[in-house]
Design goal:
The structure is a single chain. By secondary structure, the protein is mainly alpha-helical. The mean pLDDT is 77. Helix content is 26%, strand content 0%. The termini are far apart. It has one domain.
Length: 47
Amino acid sequence: MNLFRREKTVTETVCRECGMEFISSERMLRHMIKAHTKSGKGPSCKC
């Protein structure tokens, strides 16, 4: 039983970094990984 553990769910559909709006939270998470990570994977967001 997980009485003291909370599952983290993302329900936001607007990017906190650049303000882009998405139709689902899954697409927003994918955008955050590709556009706003500093590892160099994917193109950077041109905001």
